Hints:
It contains seven helices and no strands. 59% of the residues lie in helices and 0% in strands. α4 (74-87) packs antiparallel against α5 (93-107) and α4 (74-87) packs parallel to α6 (111-124). Mean pLDDT is 87; it is low at 1-15. The chain is an all-alpha fold. The chain has one domain (39-140). It has helices at 17-28, 45-56, 66-71, 74-87, 93-107, 111-124, 130-140.
Amino acid sequence: MRTTNGSVFPGNQLPNTNAREQLARRMAAPLTHWWRLRSPHDLSMRDVRAIREALLETDLVRDCDWFRAVAGDAAAAIGIAIKGLKSHGMKDPVTDAIVSAVLCCAVEGNPGAKVVMISALWRRARIDPVCYGLRVRWLHAKF
């Protein structure tokens, strides 16, 4: 069915315009926001390296195990995340940093980090509906 201006789509917009805008927004987001914007299947080892480099430059997290967590120690990253998720809100930049460290471990295949990712996305989904879909993707992700 055509609209009054002769276009099949209202407002002469292609149906994928919104999807393209969302993809562009996700790719342009800070690296520490990727845990709540990008699917686990869209993340590569190159992305893990970039996230870790960004985390090394931040001084938001005040924990003696932070550098071990950033370097890939899953136990340290999970421990910091569990403490941090309890004490910081989901909108706090510290939360983005600590969950990003866990994200790196999860992408590398650590099953405990994957569970923490699912939990963090479940909590974040209360204020950000995009996280519902990401949570499901993490539930089914295999690394």
